[in-house]
Design goal:
By secondary structure, the protein is an alpha/beta fold. It is built from 17 helices and six strands. Helix 8 runs parallel beside helix 11. The longest helix has 16 residues.
Length: 322
């Protein structure tokens, strides 16, 4: 799905309770939910973990923070932090996320914002098509899915479809890092509000929403959303920043004026405020690990470029050869 990679963090908030709900009736081809690993197996996985994703050291005012480009879905084999990311965790006292997915108040705020969003009824044929896909979704009850705005439904369907290829929202980097931060009693802060994320995601009018839903269902029906998830995961797992920089050329997500407007809302328009918030936390003397979706790390308004322009020395930490 064209917008899947840029919106998985928001969808993960909505899926977390349902994803673990064994009572949800599953279609026959759905994978089983991920199970908690035995302590010995988890310890071995942590010892063997290697670095993935994109990590920068940010230095200004006599101390350092870190910026990490995350992935919002994943697999256990690539989701645990490797040596460089563990060192960044140990060197910092504050985890700054786009939005804290583990905070119940944040989840309630997100639900309120979505409930308050203006309703744009879909054409009947498109509504029926969306309903058919909802009945085949893995890990969520159709009634729960249908309670969301249509755009959120189709994005959620794209995320759930990735489960059939072995990619799980339970292994989102934000959730993994939050677990480490809670265990270490680190401060967790949100760089944005639920309102900002919802306004960035949702189409501005009914015609745009119908076009978004139709495009998303087309991608599902032709396996493009699953293939896009595979490509973004492979790019992130290989820390291939050069390939990520060319994302607009291979993502099939900037083909129309609506696509380009959506990309600006989700990335370019948000980056300056995110960068200012990271800088403000650092200026307070905090040692911050800012973990933000990897697509915020590319383009002329990328977070590394904005923070460098704000006076930070920005050094990329390249993963060791695997």
């Amino acid at each position: 799905m064209k917008r899947l990679a840029a919106t998985l963090a928001l969808v993960s908030v909505l899926l977390a309770p349902a994803h673990a709900d064994d009572a949800v009736t599953q279609p026959a081809d759905c994978p089983a939910p991920p199970q908690m690993s035995a302590p010995e197996a988890l310890q071995k996985a942590m010892r063997d973990a290697t670095d993935h994703g994109f990590l920068w050291k940010l230095t200004r005012d006599g101390h350092s923070s870190y910026l990490y480009g995350t992935l919002h879905i994943g697999q256990l084999s690539i989701s645990l932090p490797g040596p460089a990311l563990r060192a960044a965790l140990a060197a910092t006292d504050t985890l700054a996320l786009e939005i804290d997915l583990t905070d119940p108040a944040t989840q309630q705020e997100m639900a309120r914002e979505l409930a308050a969003w203006p309703s744009h009824p879909l054409p009947e044929a498109l509504k029926a098509r969306l309903k058919r896909h909802a009945a085949q979704a893995c890990g969520i009850a159709p009634a729960q899915l249908e309670s969301l705005p249509p755009t959120m439904q189709v994005i959620t369907l794209g995320l759930l479809d990735a489960r059939r290829a072995g990619y799980e929202p339970a292994y989102a980097q934000e959730l993994v890092l939050s677990g480490f931060a809670h265990t270490a009693k680190r401060r967790i802060v949100s760089l944005e509000t639920a309102q900002i994320q919802v306004h960035a995601l949702m189409p501005p009018d009914g015609d745009s929403e119908a076009a978004t839903v139709e495009s998303g269902l087309d991608a599902l029906e032709h396996d493009r959303s699953r293939e896009q998830a595979r490509q973004i995961i492979d790019t992130w797992a290989g820390s291939a920043i050069d390939r990520l920089e060319h994302y607009p050329e291979w993502c099939e997500c900037t083909e129309t004026s609506e696509d380009k407007a959506a990309m600006r809302r989700m990335l370019d328009d948000r980056n300056p405020q995110i960068a200012r918030h990271i800088a403000a936390l650092h200026a307070q003397g905090l040692k911050v690990l800012a973990a933000v979706g990897s697509l915020h790390m590319i383009g002329t308004t990328s977070l590394p470029r904005l923070l460098a322009a704000d006076g930070f020395t920005v050094e990329r930490i390249v993963p060791a050869v695997r």
